[in-house]
Amino acid sequence: MDYPEKIRLAIQYMEEHSSEKILLEEIAKASFISPFHFHRIFKSITNSTPREYIERIRIERAAHLFIDMDKSMELYLKNLQNALGENNESAK
Question: Which of 8, 19, 33, 45 is the most exposed place for a label (fewest CB within 10 A)?
Fold first, then answer.
């Protein structure tokens, strides 16, 4: 298995466990590389440290949740307006 494939395994592990506390040793183990070499190789391939990469995953997930929450709130408010008859033209 070559290094890009091993880093792909590491990224997959980080994405699957991003809501948990992840140790460098665990990610390295999932990619079949020693922690020292893993950190060095990961940085050279992704241009970020494993910690930076995990933080980016978490920020992106939080942003998606925020967007989904905003859409849900808009839908809730529309439904509430409809239930209260505020969008009913015949009431005017």
Answer: 19
